[in-house]
Write a structure and sequence with these properties.
It is built from six helices and no strands. About 75% of the residues lie in helices and about 0% in strands. Belongs to the tetraspanin (TM4SF) family. Its main location: membrane.
């Protein structure tokens, strides 16, 4: 049977949603691992990652049930949600890839000023204090504070990795955005196909 058939469309859609399920569980596992080993203490960051993982898991579950049962309503809502996710994710991925160095610095500074717990994690893990300046009266968890050597500022250190991280995130986001538009196309085609086991005379 060619891949335009009912069974192939169903199998491809199930495989795609199994991939989304694995990715969602991986996101939740990474967040739990990070907070369990003390790498991340920011509940806001962990909460966002876990929320994205749960949201992706629920979408995959809806798509998987709709594909197995050929449920028209579930497949319709799955297709609409996946299309909206594609639009948002594609836009964010393109923005990550398009940011220049100055814009990256501004974005990092905004994040630095608005996330105290994440700021503490960065200072502790990168052994630096302050973003562009550091006041000795400010709290810093870096080990360099206890030594005789002056602490490095965090902005230059973060800047070395920011471009690579944004390109990586943008590339991964683009990859999954294309799998999402593939899922929308597969769902649209699968909804309009008739199950030959349910109505064999439809193909005679």
């Amino acid at each position: 049977m060619v891949c335009g058939g009912f069974a192939c469309s169903k199998n491809c859609l199930c495989a795609l949603n199994l991939l989304y399920t694995l990715v969602s569980l991986l996101l939740i596992g990474i967040a739990a691992w990070g907070i369990g080993f003390g790498l991340i203490s920011s509940l806001r960051v962990v909460g966002v990652v876990i929320a994205v993982g749960i949201f992706l898991f629920l979408i995959a579950l809806v798509g998987l049930i709709g594909a197995i049962k050929h449920h028209q309503v579930l497949l319709f809502f799955y297709m609409i949600i996946l299309l909206l996710v594609f639009i948002v994710q594609f836009s964010v991925s393109c923005a990550c890839l398009a940011l220049n160095q100055e814009q990256q610095g501004q974005l990092l500074e905004v994040g630095w000023n608005n996330t105290a717990s994440a700021r503490d994690d960065i200072q502790r893990n990168l052994n630096c204090c302050g973003f562009r300046s550091f006041n000795q009266n400010d709290t810093c968890l870096a080990s360099c504070v206890k030594s005789d050597h002056p602490c490095s500022l965090c902005a230059p250190i973060i800047g070395k990795y920011a471009g690579e991280v944004l390109r990586f995130v943008g590339g991964i986001g683009l990859f999954f955005s294309f799998t999402e538009i593939l899922g929308v196309w597969l769902t649209y085609r699968y909804r309009n196909q008739k199950d030959p086991r349910a109505n064999p005379s439809a193909f005679l």
